[in-house]
């Protein structure tokens, strides 16, 4: 049941370094679109004072998350939730939200739903962390342009999003961009906070 995503091994430590500076000292961290579950295990192990709550809309992904979770045996790693950002969220509170590599491989409506859900769920000052490839005022790396073309060929609703458009959409739900951190392989961490 365990799935493996090679990118996870490459990006988990750079992401952890950013999260270490940005996450609260205690509380529940909701991970949206947890995929294989490898990030969830890594971050639950790295932040033992936090409860890590993985989620994914895909049953196959949730089975993989459960398999990784069972193997790791970490007391602060919760069972995965069936969470589709475009439907009612099955969680009542979180102290931060982490979403890695979802916004570009889902329709724009999913990004809008992510911001709406985060705006409703997060307390004031709490973090919404996004990771992935982005455009900044229409500009991105050549490798991201190639990636964007391949994404749109698979599904015309997908694609590398512009931070300006994301930030405008986030602002409608009380989320303010507080920073962008350059990451390996032309990715960025976007740090939104609930106003």
Order of helices and strands: HEHEHEHEEHEHEE
**What is the strand arrangement across the widest sheet?**
2-1-3-4-8-7
Class per helix and strand makeup: alpha/beta
Major sheet characteristics: 6 strands, mixed
Q: What is the alpha-carbon Rg in Å?
A: 16 Å
**Proportion of residues in β-strands:** 15-25%
User: Low-confidence segments, ≥5 residues, pLDDT <50?
Assistant: none
**Mean model confidence by pLDDT:** 97
Tell me how many strands there are. 8
Helix count equals: 6
Q: Please bin the fraction of helical residues.
A: 25-40%
Straight-line N-to-C gap? 40 Å
Shape: globular
Structural commentary:
The model has no long low-confidence stretch (mean pLDDT 97). The longest helix is centred in the first third of the chain and has 17 residues, at 6-22. This protein has six helices and eight strands; from the N terminus they run αβαβαβαββαβαββ. Helix 1 (6-22) packs parallel to helix 2. A six-stranded mixed β-sheet has the order 2-1-3-4-8-7, sandwiched between helices. A two-stranded parallel ribbon has the order 5-6. The chain is an alpha/beta fold and 195 residues long. Helices cover 39% and strands 22% of the residues. It starts with 5 loop residues before the first helix and ends with a strand.
């Amino acid at each position: 049941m365990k799935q493996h995503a090679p990118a996870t091994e490459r990006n988990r430590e750079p992401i952890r370094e950013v999260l270490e500076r940005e996450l609260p000292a205690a509380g529940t961290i909701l991970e949206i679109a947890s995929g294989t579950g490898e990030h969830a295990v890594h971050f639950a192990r790295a932040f033992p004072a936090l409860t890590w709550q993985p989620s994914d809309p895909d049953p196959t992904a949730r089975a993989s998350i459960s398999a990784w979770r069972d193997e790791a045996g970490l007391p602060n790693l919760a069972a995965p939730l069936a969470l589709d950002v475009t439907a009612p969220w099955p969680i009542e509170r979180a102290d931060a939200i982490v979403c890695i590599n979802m916004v570009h491989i889902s329709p724009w409506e999913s990004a809008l739903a992510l911001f709406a859900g985060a705006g409703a769920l997060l307390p004031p000052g709490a973090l919404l962390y996004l990771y992935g490839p982005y455009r900044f005022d229409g500009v991105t790396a050549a490798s991201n342009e190639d990636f964007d073309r391949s994404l749109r060929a698979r599904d015309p609703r997908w694609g590398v999003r512009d931070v300006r458009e994301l930030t405008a959409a986030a602002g409608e739900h009380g989320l303010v961009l507080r920073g962008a951190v350059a990451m390996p392989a032309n990715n960025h961490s976007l740090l939104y906070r609930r106003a």
